[in-house]
Amino acid sequence: MKIGVIMGGISSERDISLKSGESMVKYLKDGKYEAVPIVIDKKEDILNKINGIDFALLALHGQFGEDGTVQAVLQTLGVPYSGCDPLSSALCMDKDLTKKILKASGIRTADWYNVKSAEEIDYEKINKMGYPIVIKPNSGGSSVATFIVQKKEEVLRAVEEGLKWDKEVMIEEYIKGDEITCPVVDGELYPTLAIKPNAEFFDYTAKYADGGADEFIVELEEKLKIEVEKMALDCWKALKCSVYARVDIIIRNGIPYVLEINTLPGMTKNSLFPKSAAGIGISFTRLLEIIVEKSLKVRA
């Protein structure tokens, strides 16, 4: 089977996508599939460069890749692809819609509201949340243009910066606590990882630089473990995920809050998903093969 590893793209996360894609090609070649890199530089490339492949393994991140657009094109063309479908991808990419669905499903998440312009900033709402707050692009990823804002005077600049990257910006209650992530494959939980960034939060550098964060499998206290695992699987079901996704959670004073759901989590050598899989004896190559196999069953 000839697998095209789709990478690059046009989003702010292009560089990370290229790293993910290069890793996936490298490790897939150690297994049973023929893997070829397909670099997307502009939108029409998804039509022009996929001829002759039997399966599309998506290493794209951000808009036009993680938001359901590419998935819809591949589905229309009859090319089976990895990961979640267009609907689930779009929902999880839009942080505001994700949180609305979580709230409607009774899944705990931090308070928030969105703005589309600086004029929509409501300082009364912010005061009710209390400083610090988090300001970030609504549909961004990899913590690009994400700020922890300590005081009123910093709000406008953070919102304006976020609007350079997206049409909407989220203003969110800051939950200070211990960050964990729960990888899910086909509705089954893989080992939970604790994330200890060597910075104020799990920012771009902490995510992708060597030594940027300590990430390790963690065994939670039994009651908390049960709640976290149920929360992760409830997210998976509520957002209609398929094949694989990663649920990011933060725990404050023993109470877990969902941060977001990643439908195309990073797959570099520093990425969380391969580290979790390794904890149950699954190599990176085998993890990629499992993703291909599970995707083919869903897309058959």
Write up this protein.
The protein has eleven helices and 13 strands. With 300 residues, the protein is an alpha+beta fold. It has three domains: 2-82, Rossmann fold; 91-107 and 176-299, D-amino Acid Aminotransferase, Chain A, domain 1 (2-Layer Sandwich); 112-173, Dna Ligase, domain 1 (2-Layer Sandwich). Strands 8, 9, 10, 11, 12 and 13 form a six-stranded antiparallel sheet that branches. A four-stranded antiparallel sheet has the order 4-7-5-6, with helices on one face. It is globular and about 55 Å long. 44% of the residues are buried.
Topology:
Layout: E1 2-8, H1 14-28, E2 34-40, H2 45-48, E3 55-58, H3 69-77, H4 86-93, H5 95-104, E4 112-115, H6 123-129, E5 133-137, E6 147-149, H7 155-163, E7 169-173, E8 178-185, E9 188-189, E10 193-197, H8 204-208, E11 213-217, H9 222-238, E12 244-252, E13 255-262, H10 272-278, H11 284-299
Outline of the structure:
This protein has 300 residues and is of the alpha+beta class. Helices cover 36% and strands 24% of the residues. It is built from 11 helices and 13 strands.
